[in-house]
Design a protein that fits this description.
The chain is about 40% helix and about 20% strand. It has about 475 residues and is of the alpha/beta class. The longest helix is centred in the N-terminal third of the chain and has 21 residues, at about 90-110. The strands form seven sheets. The chain has a seven-stranded mixed beta sheet, with helices on both faces. It has a six-stranded mixed beta sheet with strand order 9-8-7-10-11-22, sandwiched between helices. It has helices spanning about 35-55, 60-75, 75-90, 90-110, 150-165, 180-190, 205-215, 230-235, 265-275, 295-305, 330-345, 375-380, 395-405, 420-430, 460-465, and strands at about 5, 10, 15-20, 25-35, 120, 130-140, 140-145, 170-175, 200, 220-225, 245-250, 255, 285-290, 310, 320, 345-350, 365-370, 385-395, 410-415, 435, 445-450, 455, 455-460, 470-475. It contains 15 helices and 24 strands. It has two domains: about 5-250 and about 455-475, Aldehyde Dehydrogenase, Chain A, domain 1 (3-Layer(aba) Sandwich), CATH 3.40.605.10; about 255-440, Aldehyde Dehydrogenase, Chain A, domain 2, CATH 3.40.309.10. Strand 17, helix 12 (about 375-380) and strand 18 form a beta-alpha-beta unit.
Length: about 475
């Protein structure tokens, strides 16, 4: 039975039973007692009390706890990966990626925290030595973290790492879709004896726990990985007190393949993007624009790449195994986007249906939709599924305008080798990230959105600094 982790203790939730289903079969495989709003407040109070001690804990000691936790995770890697695979539907390789991403983030923050320092200034209005100014960075306080279901372990590490390293304390709430692996992190923290209240992990209905956590005056920051609508709701609820926010929200990523772009590479990476995690990622290739002279070639190459994909789950064998979506509701939403595009003139070149023999799970075949237009739902909404949506273009300036025609502003892609075009795209595209001719990431790079895709960022030195507030001392000797 999975427990809530509050104030250093593993406790039963005092709420109703919460069922967790395997998306590959649609069957419930675990049931546990959900936390209540009263327990959410208990967790907040525990974090608040712990902060008074933890924020004064020596840096070396905090880093040692972070390393001890990381080592304990690694000892149980296979159990955690299999648990995550079952609750999320991720094939084994995808679940391993999620786990390993979390480990790399924890290791990064254990090192990066040593580079967070203060600074001093001489007074500009007088002679040197007449006034000294010191600016220090202090732990912010209690942080509330709302985690998304698509990468539970990676997302958790992006909150736990900065919390422990900085001297903050936190309350994390995993998604009710995928709570188990995250709750198990609390069991590991309890086992290693992490000081009580530094990290608290509670799972239960978002409407009850989320409201309690956001409305409370205890948190100094609320951080969220989720949809834009959820981000607006969190900010509205958090207005009960002055808080800071770090929100990584939805995307609608454009990918522009220019006439001189490597079409083979673009097709390969587009398929990897939309098949990995069954396309359930905020940085997915949502709107692909291909120069008219390379359009048919791109479509053909995508269909060839799709042949490498095997439908499956868990430890099923295959070069590229694609699991189910998180649930049938999400699968049917994606099928609705495909149907709407087809009804308005788009061509479904492959996929767009449920694979034979997999009807019990939340499966959908990888899909290529061609001749998409900007007014279709598949262009206006985040797909978040294994669908490649493509249209042709001829004018570069026009396609930049179309790429920007969205409220989202997280990730964008460009394939081409014209330095002037790359520079133009970097200046014009209103997205926090632009990848050119490939994809590379790591915990040292900020994952940041603009416009309706969020505020602040995850990972990197900039993400870590969000866990600090500035304090100034000015002294006249």
């Amino acid at each position: 039975m999975f427990k809530q982790y509050i104030n250093g203790q593993l406790v039963d939730g005092r709420g109703g039973a919460l069922n967790v289903s395997d998306p590959a079969t649609g069957l419930v495989f675990e049931t546990f007692s959900a936390a209540t709003k009263e327990q959410a407040n208990e967790a907040l109070e525990a974090a608040q009390a712990a902060f008074k001690v933890w924020s004064w804990t020596p840096l070396d000691e905090r880093v040692e706890w972070l390393r001890k936790y990381t080592e304990a995770l690694l000892k149980e890697r296979e159990y955690i990966v299999d648990l995550l695979s079952r609750e999320s539907g991720k094939p084994y390789a995808e679940a391993c990626y999620d786990f390993d991403w979390g480990i790399s983030s924890l290791r990064y923050f254990a090192e990066e925290i040593r580079r967070v320092t203060g600074t001093t200034y001489s007074d500009n209005g007088g002679r040197r030595g007449e006034f000294y100014h010191l600016v220090d960075q202090r732990p912010l306080g209690v942080v509330v973290g709302h985690l998304a279901w698509n990468y539970p372990l990676g997302n958790a590490a992006l909150k736990i790492g900065p919390t422990i390293a900085s001297g903050c304390c936190c309350v994390l709430k995993p998604s009710s879709q995928t709570p188990l692996a995250t709750l198990y992190l609390g069991e590991i923290m309890h086992r290693i004896g992490l000081p009580a209240g530094v990290v608290n992990i509670i799972a239960g209905p978002a409407g009850e726990l989320g409201d309690a956590l956001n409305i409370s005056r205890i948190p100094k920051m609320i951080t969220l990985i989720g949809s834009t609508d959820t981000g607006r709701q969190v900010m509205a609820q958090g207005a009960s007190s002055i808080k800071t926010y770090s929100l990584e929200l939805g995307g609608n990523a454009p990918a522009i393949i220019m006439e001189d772009g490597d079409v083979a590479q673009a097709a390969k990476l587009a398929v990897i993007s939309q098949v990995s995690n069954t396309g359930q990622t905020c940085i997915g290739y949502n709107r692909i624009y291909v120069h008219a002279s390379r359009y048919e070639e791109f479509c053909q190459r995508v269909q060839e790449e799709f042949k490498r994909v095997t439908i499956g789950a868990g430890r099923d064998a295959g070069e590229m195994v694609m699991g189910p979506m998180i649930n049938k509701r999400e699968r049917d939403r994606v099928l609705g986007l495909i149907a709407d595009a087809k009804a308005h003139g788009a061509r479904v070149l492959c996929g767009g249906d449920i694979p034979a023999g997999f009807e019990k799970g939340a499966y959908i075949n990888p899909t290529l939709v061609a001749d998409v237009t900007e007014d279709m739902r598949i262009s206006r909404e985040e797909i978040f599924g294994p669908v490649i949506s493509v249209r042709a273009y001829t004018d570069f300036e026009d396609v930049l305008k179309k790429a920007n025609d969205t409220e989202a502003g997280l990730t964008s892609y460009l394939y081409g080798h014209d330095a002037r075009a790359i520079a133009r795209a970097f200046e014009v595209l209103e997205f926090g990230e632009l990848y050119v001719n490939g994809f590379s990431t790591g915990p040292m790079l900020p994952h940041c959105g603009v416009r309706e895709s969020g505020v602040g960022c995850d990972a990197s030195q900039w993400g870590l600094k969000e866990y600090f507030s500035l304090k100034r001392l000015s002294v006249k000797p």
